[in-house]
Design goal:
The chain is an alpha/beta fold. The protein has 2 domains: 201 residues, inorganic pyrophosphatase (n-terminal core) (Alpha-Beta Complex), CATH 3.90.1640; 100 residues, Roll (Diaminopimelate Epimerase, Chain A, domain 1). The protein contains 12 helices and 11 strands. It has a 6-stranded mixed β-sheet, with helices on both faces. β10 and β11 form a beta hairpin. α4 packs antiparallel against α5 and α6 crosses α10. It is globular and about 55 Å long.
Length: 321
């Protein structure tokens, strides 16, 4: 029997994986990549009796490969909070999927394992742009405010590392980062004893200093659009910048466009709670769009579609009362 973990390379995917691996010791193949590399099940060739665990990637984007794995006789356990669409009904399929705006994948894993490694789930929530959830989870784990602040910095650093056009844009390959995290049951021990944290934190500060100096390309009441330069630092900064702008402007929808090496743009979208149109509904209009209610994205927006995208974005979210 072979075991596979397919996980998003961001903070939520890494911390969900960390919780499960601490509970389920044993050899397993790790399948991951940059944050936008979500069709991970296409890279798994499992057979009858094999076990596949999927963490923090959209079922809707992996549906064909999921059905293929089930038909091949593999068992698939699926933890996620992105848009899933209709769930397969199969005796070897175990879904843990919830699309609520205040839930991330690591929270679902935390529930499944009854809070055994809750501090890692708190790190994920901080990194996934859910600071109130992270604070509540840290408190429930008995951690003081100073420790929670360190965990928030770790979560943001882990999340920041996942953004890029390819693994070469990242400071650390997510698979290697998962291996470096694995020995640590406590995230604070990882901060104190693994030099990778300092590397990520330093890179984060340098990149975000540049990102925070950028001016919006378009700024109308209720909607801001930013276009990043074609540079690795900008591709790394896109997710954290989107979260920061959302927290600074809670009543404004945010769209950030980042040039792709192969042409077109990666797009991150954040929308305020209570919008008539959700972020995932807006992004799924495009072939490579997906995500969740308040935070979604488009993997490839063609250059010819940028102007119409901005018009549609401002029409959907601008001038909110």
């Amino acid at each position: 029997m072979a075991r596979y973990y397919a996980f998003n390379g961001d903070a939520d995917g890494l911390c969900a994986l960390q919780q499960l691996r601490l509970c389920e010791p044993g050899d397993a193949a790790l399948v991951t990549g940059v944050k936008r590399d979500i069709r991970l099940l296409e890279r798994i060739d499992a057979a009858s009796g094999d076990e596949v665990t999927v963490l923090d990637v959209s079922l809707d984007q992996n549906r064909s490969a999921l059905l293929r794995l089930l038909e091949a006789g593999a068992s698939v356990r699926y933890f996620d909070h992105h848009y899933a669409g209709e769930l397969p009904v199969h005796p070897r399929f175990e879904p843990h999927i919830e699309e609520a705006g205040d839930v991330c994948t690591s929270v679902l894993v935390d529930r499944h394992i009854k809070g055994r490694f809750r501090s890692w789930a708190a790190v994920a929530a901080f990194g996934d742009g859910l600071p109130s959830v992270g604070t509540a989870m840290a408190s429930s784990a008995g951690l003081d405010a100073r420790t929670a602040a360190t965990m928030e910095k770790l979560g943001i650093s882990l999340n920041y590392n996942a953004y890029g056009d390819s693994v070469s844009d990242l400071h650390v390959d997510p698979a290697e980062l998962a291996s470096q995290m694995f020995p640590f049951q406590n995230p604070i021990d990882f901060v104190l004893h693994c030099p990778t944290f300092a590397r990520l934190a330093s890179g984060y500060e340098e990149d975000m200093c540049r990102a925070r100096a950028l001016e919006p390309a378009r700024d109308v009441p209720g909607a801001k659009t930013l276009v990043l330069p074609d540079a690795p630092w900008a591709r790394r900064a896109i997710g954290v910048l989107a979260n920061e702008l959302t927290q600074a402007h809670p009543d404004t929808a945010i769209a950030i466009l980042s040039p792709r090496a192969r042409g077109g743009y990666v797009v991150s979208v954040r929308v305020p709670a209570g919008c008539a149109v959700s972020a995932v509904e807006f992004c799924r209009f495009y072939e490579t769009g997906g995500g969740r209610k308040l935070a979604a994205g488009i993997d490839c927006l063609q250059d010819a579609d940028v102007d119409s995208f901005v018009q549609r974005f401002e029409a959907s979210f601008g001038a909110r009362s």
